[in-house]
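Predict the holo structure. Ligand: magnesium ion.
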Amino acid sequence: MNKTEFHTTLSRMFRARIPFIVINSMERARVLDTISVLADEIVIPIYVHSLSHGTQDINAKRTLNEDKSVIGGLDYGIQQMSQRQNLTFVFTEVSDLGDDNMVARHFYDGVIQAIERGGSICVITNNPVWQQIQRMGMAIKLDTPDEDEMFEVVRESVMPYLGSIPIEWGEPEYRSAAQILSNMSKVEAENVLATIMAKGTLTVEDLGELSMHKDKLFSDISGLEKVKIEPNTLTVAGLEGMRKWLDEQRVLMTADLRERKLRPPRGVLLVGVPGCGKSLSAKFIAASWNLPLYRLDLASIQGQYLGQSEGRLKDAFTSADNASPCVLWIDEVEKGLAGAGGSGDGGTSTRMVGQFLFWLQESRYRVFVVATANDVSKLPPELLRRGRFDEIFFVDLPGEEERKDIISLYINKNLLTPPSMECLSQIVKSSDGFSGADLESAVRDVAIKAVIHGDSIVSDELYIRCFTNVIPLSKTSPERIEAIRAWGRERAVMASGVSWNSGNPTEKPGKRILI
Ligand SMILES: Nc1ncnc2c1ncn2[C@@H]1O[C@H](COP(=O)(O)OP(=O)(O)O)[C@@H](O)[C@H]1O
Ligand SMILES: [Mg+2]
């Protein structure tokens, strides 16, 4: 439960004089904060035992018993309870309550005393507790700070530095930082923030560094592969319609949607011709949104071990939820789910599709899924129904304008000598049917020649020759490409933003035809 719920529930337990309370949390200080407030609110004496201070009054911080051992603290508690009603003792460092041992037996005696005298013994621990004692009490769990609490943690960490170092953060950055830091403990979050501010400034770019720190914490996430991206090297040319749509989703990804009862965006399915920028777009989204990118390899999850796939997939989704906000990239989703509906794999694929759809529907975490597919005919139709993904885009072979953008992009990147304007428009025209990857490889051929023979040999003629030498996929497997295009034109929104018939950019991505 979150801090507010924890506060309310623990308050009730204290008032009800529950004799034994196990508080599940790794965050001792945060639990004690709440207990300290409760001590004032309901005006009851509460004593806290720790190995460093012995037993102290929680708010007066007066040491009442010097004995620092757990047994010593417990003996003191039992003795005090025999003299006064309604005392509460909190133990913060008990290591072995898991089974029938000496310490556990001692606690058992303490709880018996508490029952008789309206006392209460609390233990803050993340370890299991011996059944025999647990049955006499109740357990309560404090989760790591949620976004609202983390927002306060961020603000309180930054406040003391205002005026002493340059700080570019305002409310929106506090909110983003809170989202990134969620699922960390309060202390971890404070440490990360302090480390970042120790360099003497706090800039908007530091939000990226926060993500990095979080990645480290979640670095061995199961079933997911962290994909390293270098934001500055990633550029997508064309695909304007999709990019416009993504800009809107980005706003939704960071906005506080709870009041409106909206769920965060779930993601997008990109289908289309191989080599036209689907995988590239997945990386581009993560890079431009400043979010970590995790790749889920369904084929490897399906693995050799029959019956384990579902468990592993569940772990992967839980990990993605924990790593949120993030982008979850499922590349060539049709390969991982091939066989769904069939009987070849004992129904594993079908169950995985079901599990995937369930998670997509139910998860409320900010995990933006980017799934890509080349061959739509192999995709289970459930995946294409409305409401699964927020949008399905068709990534087609680039049109004339897009080819010009892609060619220019790679010429700028790879070459010192651009072609003449006439030559450029000639290669743009003659490269009809080329994919983005084909265009890139033609430019790369020119660049390789430039490296080998020197830049002076780069000429219009060389450009034209290198472009003529490339044989695009649309020439080598025309039927395959045509089948993909026929499906996409009919069923999905054009990622280019150019509607199929007119060839003109439309205001908005075109209308989707219901499937
Ligand atoms: N629209 C584009 N803008 C820039 N580069 C592109 C574009 N489309 C394809 N490319 C180049 O082709 C390569 C292969 O594209 P990729 O995204 O892997 O294709 P696929 O659609 O098959 O996933 C990319 O890494 C990139 O270098
Ligand atoms: Mg790809």
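The radius of gyration is 30 Å. Residues 147-217 form one domain.
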